[in-house]
């Protein structure tokens, strides 16, 4: 569907082929060359819109909201939006890599909730255990997803649907059918970290900044990142190129599980207890954020920064609807849904543009 | 002529977003006679004397809140679940109506759509928008800490309604307004004993697990039956998750396993309505072969009491608007507010159901 080139859909590899037979001089040839450059320009424009459309929309929404509401463009509100977005952002980071590789991870919502409950459970042995326990268990679930998808060649949709149910079940076992909520002491290191802030921004926000910077480097500057793009563009071609497809795929789902577990543990520490009802439908929010951010649901193309924009956009919409105050919250789903439809339609149009 | 049409149009407009998000209510067509869900019905009555037995109470000075006139104030209301069931619809409507009646400058309303993270951000957003007092219907007893701490830091009083939170009253929050769920279960048990003449086999349709409403309604019922009706046997307890369809399917399973049951206690009306369908399709006549008792007092259930299919409904009054604003007004007038303001719940039986179905929600 998109070019095989791991550098992304806007790469100039494909138009380089056709003009060579038409290279002899002559009016016809010149016409062909201008036609080709025109297509290239269109393709390039399409690529740019696809990659940075989310930034434009976010900037536009923020601008309009700042003009419309006095209490929107305040530091307090910006701080709130940042911290409230941070947990979904961590989950969406893992999801971005999985979707770029052409897969999907539906288990992250349950794994997020399990991570939180395990963090509260592990708190009895201290803050370190409260981080390591959820990472170990959620990592194991991610690894299971990865092995089944990567080596077992099973459909990621089904595999991660199964672990979605399994992780939620495990959570119910630990919490006696959801009736036990363990409180995390406010003086513990982890809770102080999650609720504390530095330079005006909460610690979870800084963790997001670091993780996303790392994610962007891995995707764009390393062999691993390039092979993920290649696998997403065409798994068979990646195999023929001799890339370690199964190993890379396994790694991605492992990372997704770890990140979801980490986000869950941080969110639990932030709210002060391992609440059992969180995370339902979180996987869909994460997928929505990734797609709004310009990552192709079919794989092979996507950006880390776009995902961050997608997360912020979802959260800003919610904030704006709260600012209006008189609108029912059902409108939020309507607006977010509408955004998603528009993005998917534009994406379909743009990728068709680029194939021409 | 034009009035019902206008009402229908308003209802259609109000329902549009609900339909779009695939959670349309199926039963708002039969409210024609009343004044619409929520606004018209009976007011809540406080059972505990205010400032009385429930401890020393909380005053403006003790809480440290600045003085406030509600007419010039911004008040925030955080609803927990989608307005997709009669209880939540009536609760939100009652808050809006009372705020309008009192002339509150601005009432901010948010809905967490059953997501705890959203309820936290909703409350933080409302504080940021300048809310000076908050009324919160908590989704969960734990986990709202960051939001409540933010309110506390700004000395914003928080009332929690219908569910309680695990925190210190007059410190993290001002006070709790709500029903005594154990008492509701106990009342239901007394009605069941009356319906069955103290002898029979009863099945319980439990609410969602891990929820103090379910636990308390079960405890109140079971304890009362064990203490005073030794000949009533509880033969099945299964969760119907407070939902009508689940209540129906669970009831079908219970009838298959226990064909000789004579009573059903549903912990909310929706499950009771589902159970009625299951009973009828199994060839049992509710009200004669099997006695049904439930809790909530929704209009559909009270109508079934009139029809003779449900024996009794214990009301859980969702109209928190008047009581919430009265409590806030009292608080700002310097009155001491008890930690728990418990409302008394009325009972619908065949004696009063026909007369009062109009005021049910």
Give an account of the 3D structure.
The complex is a heterodimer of chains A (356) and B (361). Chain A contains 13 helices and 4 strands. Chain A is mainly α and 356 residues long. Chain A has one domain (21-355): ABC transporter involved in vitamin B12 uptake, BtuC (Orthogonal Bundle), CATH 1.10.3470. In chain A, the strands form 2 sheets. Chain A has a two-stranded antiparallel ribbon with strand order 1-4. In chain A, strands 2-3 form a two-stranded antiparallel sheet. The model of chain B is unreliable at 1-40 and 50-54 (pLDDT under 50). In chain B, helix 3 (86-102) crosses helix 11 (321-332), helix 4 (116-128) packs parallel to helix 5 and helix 6 crosses helix 7. In chain B, strand 4, helix 5 (145-153) and strand 5 (158-161) form a beta-alpha-beta unit. Chain B has 3 domains: 1-32, no CATH class; 41-179 and 317-344, Response regulator (Rossmann fold, 3-Layer(aba) Sandwich), CATH 3.40.50.2300; 181-315, 3-Layer(aba) Sandwich (Rossmann fold). Chain B is of the alpha/beta class and 361 residues long. In chain B, the strands form 2 sheets. A 7-stranded mixed sheet of chain B has the order 1-12-6-5-4-2-3, sandwiched between helices. Chain A binds chain B through residues 71, 74, 76-77, 80, 84, 87, 175, 177-181, 183, 195, 267, 270-273, 275-278, 280-281, 315, 318-319, 322-323, 325-326, 328-334, 337, and chain B through 17-18, 20-21, 23, 79, 82-83, 106-118, 120-122, 124-126, 128-130, 139-146, 149, 166, 209-210, 215.
Structural topology:
The complex is a heterodimer of chains A (356) and B (361).
Chain A: H1 27-68, H2 75-100, H3 108-122, H4 127-150, H5 156-174, E1 182-183, H6 189-195, E2 197-198, E3 201-202, H7 203-221, H8 223-233, H9 235-240, H10 245-271, E4 273-274, H11 282-292, H12 304-324, H13 330-355
Antiparallel strand pairs in A: 1-4, 2-3
Helix pairs in contact in A: 1-12, 1-13, 2-7, 2-10, 2-11, 2-12, 3-4, 3-5, 3-10, 4-5, 4-10, 6-10, 7-8, 11-12, 12-13
Chain B: H1 2-20, E1 45-46, H2 60-63, E2 74-79, H3 86-102, E3 106-111, H4 116-128, E4 133-136, H5 145-153, E5 158-161, E6 175-179, H6 181-196, E7 200-206, H7 212-228, E8 232-239, H8 244-257, E9 263-266, H9 269-281, E10 291-296, H10 299-307, E11 312-315, H11 321-332, E12 340-344, E13 347-348, H12 353-356
Parallel strand pairs in B: 2-3, 2-4, 4-5, 5-6, 6-12, 7-8, 7-9, 9-10, 10-11
Antiparallel strand pairs in B: 1-12, 11-13
Helix pairs in contact in B: 3-11, 4-5, 6-7, 8-9
